[in-house]
Amino acid sequence: MSPPTPAANGARDDADALHSLILASLDDDQAVETVSIPLAGKSSIADYMVVASGRSTRQVASMAQKLAEKIKAEFGRNPRIEGLPTADWVLIDAGDVIVHLFRPEVRSFYNLERMWAFGDGPSGTA
């Protein structure tokens, strides 16, 4: 296997910087139970998936809007957002990082962390 090219390293650095921005923004907005799932080697859809909860639909919507604004200001990207009108589950596709923001009841119902944790558990399966 050949070493990563400089362009690949630059893309990885951008993904890591975006990931850090997202985690910091969610922390600033008092997101609950933020979980980051590395997807490199598991899926080609993104490098990271971040799952977090807000205490209410209002908080979920606010976190999503602020996050989209910060991503646009810092990286010049317009992330795609789904689910904002009801804000029970908001998906933010920022390219290298996919963010799922939930109300706690909706998050426990879908349990995305378990679905994406294959191979990470003590038994090797999830």
Automatic annotation (TrEMBL):
Protein name in the entry? Ribosomal silencing factor RsfS
The UniProt record lists the keyword NAD? no
Q: Which SUPFAM superfamilies match?
A: Nucleotidyltransferase
Q: Kindly give the Gene3D superfamilies that the UniProt entry links to this protein.
A: Beta Polymerase, domain 2
* Cytoplasm listed as a keyword: yes
- What biological-process terms (Gene Ontology) are attached? cytosolic ribosome assembly; negative regulation of ribosome biogenesis; negative regulation of translation
Q: How is the quaternary structure described?
A: Interacts with ribosomal protein uL14 (rplN).
Recorded GO terms, molecular function? ribosomal large subunit binding
